[in-house]
Amino acid sequence: MKLKEVYEAVDALAPFALSREFKDRYGMYDNSGVLIDCGEEISGVLCSLDLSDAAVEEAKKAGANCIVTHHPAIWDGLKSLKEGPVLACAKAGISVISAHLNLDGAEGGIDECLMAGLGGRAAEKVMQPLSRGGYGRVYEVEPASFADFVLRARRVFRTDRTAAYGGGEVRKVASFCGAGLEGATLAFAAENGADTVVSSDGKHHLITEAAERGLHLLLLTHYASENYGFARFALKLKDALGAVTHFTDRRFL
Question: What topology is assigned to 3-103 in CATH?
Answer without folding.
Answer: 3.40.1390
